Amino acid sequence: MLEQLMSDVIDSSSSTSTIESSRSSKSILQLITCPICLEIFREPLQLPCQHTFCKLCLERITEDRWGRCPVCRGCYRVPFAGVGSFEVNRTIVNLLESLSHTEPKPMLKAKCALCKLEDTITVCEHCREAICCKCRRQHYDEFSRYISSKLNETQQETEKLIAKEVENIKNHEENVCRSDDIANVIRNKVADLIEKIKQEETKLLHNVQEFSKAEQKLIDEKNACLQDLSIINKFCLESQGILHSKEETDQEAIEIRQKCEEYVLSVNDLQSRILIVKTPIRRISFFNRDISSDSISLGFVEIGMVLEPIESTVQLSSIFLSSLKIEPSSTTSSTDADLQHCSKQLIRCLSATLQQQSDYPNGSSPSYRSNISTSDNNGCCRQQLQSQNHKRTPRIIGKRGTRDTEFMHPSSLAYSKRDQLIYVCDTYNNRLVTYSIDGIFQQVYTAISETGEIRFHHPYAIHIDSDNRLYLIDQSERRIKVFNRDFKLIRVIGQYGRDVGQYSAPCDLCTNEQNYIFVCDAGGHRILKYSEQGQFLLAWGGLGTDNGQFKCPACVCILNGDRLAVSDWGNDRIQVFNCEGDHLLSIGQRGKLLAEFFRPLGLAYDETTERLFVCDEGNNRVTIFNSDFTTTELVHSKIGFHGPYDILLLKDGRIIISEHRAHRLQII
């Protein structure tokens, strides 16, 4: 009986424990089950109302910035960063982690994702699918095969990349070795140059020392003669005093007579050496031959680039395909064909771009417009280069110097249609130089004429009007002078000062069809308007950054429609006005982009195409704007620009640009 009683008690306690365990499991299952998907929580997030849901479930039911809780129907606001910004329910997370280590996974009554039968299932940790016990092995085998295939693909791609990187490292190591060899060559050339310079120094110093020794020897001889003459002179003075004090001849007087005869012979000898034999007076000079930066250049280091072909097997994203106007195809074969065709087109486009970049080693900008069309028949990209007139090899005129074909900071340019001559202000050489339209040197106009008349002093800007009169801004005298073609002064426009109608620092001028004269006064930060006879008419501007104000206006030119463009040098922009000073338009700001400037200077206007050319001096480029003042292209030069100052347009489509920092002209 006792054993039976004990058995009943044990069975009762066991059943009670089983019931309590079942109840505990059900209560825990309710805590970790999402109210929306009725599955175990995946990334549990807690709303402000303290109810918890899966992150994916919240994203699915949330459509705008506000939502309602599916349990209590309370409103909540979605953070700007999205649903993922809600607070994570750490209690649920910790409970799920503890269950994974201590207890078996809660069993859910649902259908298996594989066999579709209702059975006791568990949730796969990988894909979160409901899988029954019978299908778990099959499901794991599928998972294993999938991961193995991905690992195999990754391994193959990794091996390809490793081989490619090894090849790249080898190429870079070869480049490092080659760069070391080039560095040694440069060091040897510099050492040879230094040795030659030292030899030249030794030769020149030897000549100077020889001259110095010869002159020192002559100094010693002259000092000896001077000493003898001083002794004779002193003897003559003393002897005259002694002779005047004596009354008759004695032995001392006889000695004086004998010594005087000896000194007479000595004086005659010295006289023949000093006066009769003319000793040439020698002079030493050193003619310094300045070595220009071009002369000491040892060469240049060229860094070439080779574009590797793009493999057609590269998988392009749908975004990239859409940018190339290629619609993703449902079949693999058509997609591969499109990719292969597109890759060939890309190689051609990128090769053309790289070829353009390799032509500009000095950082000069290519002269093509950024017009890219992506809508041809096959839907692939192609690039249209439009700078047809500005891709010729430039002709270089001049270098730093004082000769006829050399310059020192050339500035303004002007063209005489009647004479077909190009005038250049060679400012620091204090002269005007003329060339033919083919770039052949013609004549130099110096500051002083043949008759001694002072024409100018450091010409800074030049302009030739429709009547072939020459307007010249004199930098040092701060005067605007008007000459005829015989270089005879006609009149002076305005006068120096800061009052109304006066200018303090004129830097450029132009005339329109009515022969009104417009002057850039950089010192007064304004534009002045004069009549043909030099009478002041109008002024506008002032120091500032607003439209219609200036900060050192640099250059001005006439546009079609009685308009004029002004390069606002200090404000890094171009302003357009009518001839009455009304502001019409401002172009650009400070920067390096295509429609931006950094210290713009010279302007030129093509009346036929209505395009405006701007010398962007700070960015070392020349920008072209079309009729509506949108940027079309950059003027291209294979050697680049260095301080472009002014620009001149010729009828045959060529362009002449003066570079004041490079001391030269370029004809493009």
Q: What does this protein structure show overall?
A:
With 668 residues, this protein is of the alpha+beta class. Among the domains are: 23-99, 2-Layer Sandwich (Herpes Virus-1); 396-667, TolB, C-terminal domain (Neuraminidase, 6 Propeller). Helix content is 33%, strand content 24%. A hairpin with a 4-residue loop joins β26 (573-578) and β27 (583-587).
Short précis:
The chain has seven helices and 34 strands.
> What is the highest CATH level, the class of the domain at 396-667?
Mainly Beta
Structural class: alpha+beta
CATH structural architecture of the domain at 396-667 = 6 Propeller
Calculate the terminal CA-CA distance, rounded to whole Å. 123 Å
CATH topological fold name of the domain at 396-667: Neuraminidase
> Which percent range fits the helix content?
25-40%
Number of helices, where a helix is a run of at least 4 consecutive DSSP H or I residues: 7
Using the alpha-carbon principal axes, give the shape: elongated
Tell me, rounded to a whole number, the average pLDDT.
78
Runs with pLDDT <50, length 5+? 12-19, 101-109, 309-390
Could you give the count of β-strands? 34
Oligomer: single chain
- Outline the biggest β-sheet: 4 strands, antiparallel
Strand content: 15-25%
CATH superfamily of the domain at 396-667: TolB, C-terminal domain
What would you report as the Rg, rounded to the nearest angstrom?
48 Å
Keywords:
single chain; 668 residues; alpha+beta; Herpes Virus-1; Neuraminidase; four-stranded antiparallel β-sheet
